[in-house]
UniProtKB/TrEMBL annotation:
PANTHER family, A to Z: ANDROGEN-INDUCED PROTEIN 1-RELATED, AT02829P-RELATED
Protein name per its UniProtKB record: FAR-17a/AIG1-like protein
Annotated source species: Encephalitozoon cuniculi (strain GB-M1) (Microsporidian parasite)
Primary location recorded for the protein, binned into one broad class: membrane
Transmembrane spans: 12-31, 51-72, 84-101, 121-139, 151-170, 182-205
Keyword Ion transport: no
GO (cellular component) term, any one: membrane
Membrane topology of this protein: Multi-pass membrane protein
Length: 229
């Protein structure tokens, strides 16, 4: 039994390590100079990438988590739960879409000229951007009651519409798409892709709500449910 007493501490150390890697992924040091220079020349820089926006959301969620769980800031508990509920499916979408398209053809997501020139992003950076944020949130949600709320669906829909407008706005300014594959299809198909992505986020949302209930039911017996956030 004594060895299980170390699990909470080890989990927090692991979470802290993942958070550091996520923060590292927001810096130019995580990428080859060529990629960083290309992004910095664009209007909006790295901040117009959905991947980067979801990563910011993940980091913000973990900051809220530490404030609520370790500093006792109960006034933002509901904000934290909302943030966690929204960030999880967004990272689920990032992880799914990136690894599928990257496996099919990396130049669907990355500048073809640089990629064909042999410029590669280190694996640790790819993982820190496209996988570890999801793992971090999954670990953090243990012990937290994630409730399904209508306002979350409104956030997903509103964000989908706004981001659709953002990528078209910056395409006109930069004369290039934030993700190259968007330039291979016409406007109607981009609308369909945006709608499908939004629906997929909602599907992930329902899945993670159910997963949270299942994990907490197994981890916290009936008598310990009061310890759930």
């Amino acid at each position: 039994m004594e060895r299980f007493e170390y699990f909470p501490a080890l989990r927090e150390i692991f979470k802290g390590t993942l958070l550091i890697l996520c923060i590292y992924a927001t810096t130019d040091y995580a990428y080859p100079k060529e990629w960083a220079d290309l992004a910095n020349k664009l209007a909006g820089g790295n901040h117009i990438y959905f991947t980067r926006l979801s990563l910011y959301m993940t980091i913000m969620t973990l900051v809220l988590s530490y404030c609520v769980k370790y500093f006792g800031v109960s006034s933002i508990r509901e904000v934290y739960r909302d943030s966690l509920s929204i960030a999880l499916p967004m990272e689920g979408l990032v992880t799914t879409v990136f690894w599928i398209l990257n496996t099919i053809d990396p130049t669907l997501l990355k500048d073809r000229e640089l990629y064909m020139a042999g410029v590669r992003t280190p694996l640790v950076s790819e993982l820190s951007l496209h996988l570890l944020p999801l793992v971090l949130l999954l670990i953090d949600q243990v012990g937290v009651n994630i409730y399904e709320r209508k306002r979350h669906y409104w956030v997903f829909g509103f964000f989908g519409v706004i981001y659709f407008g953002i990528i078209h706005h910056f395409q006109r300014i930069n004369n290039s798409w934030v993700y190259p594959f968007l330039g291979y299809v016409l406007l109607p198909m981009r609308i369909i892709l945006a709608a499908v992505a939004t629906l997929l986020v909602m599907v992930y949302y329902r899945f993670f709500v159910g997963l949270s209930r299942f994990i907490n039911a197994r981890t916290y017996p009936e008598g310990r449910r009061t310890k759930l956030l």
